Input
Amino acid sequence: RQARVIAQAKRPAPADPVLGLTLRTLPKVGAEVLHVLPRSIAARAGVQAGDVITKADDLESPSSPQIARLFAAGSSGGSVVVVLTRGQDHRVLAIPRKP
Output
């Protein structure tokens, strides 16, 4: 007997529809990223543990709860623009509210 086998490309792991950040408020500085869930919205946007979010949309030095409210506000679509510090570097990212 002969059997024809066709291999398919490996499918990427499904994206997680949650923001996926564990944050700690640094008063008058912003929010430090303690953990980023793999495949989460934040991970896909490039956020890494150790980053410090110093601005989120119009909020200067946002607290952890303020960041959570920004992402929870509004419907799917749209992004939150965050400024973060990674070591000596400063980065600007647009993080989608929902995938």
Q: What stands out?
A: The CA atoms of residues 20 and 37 lie 5 Å apart.
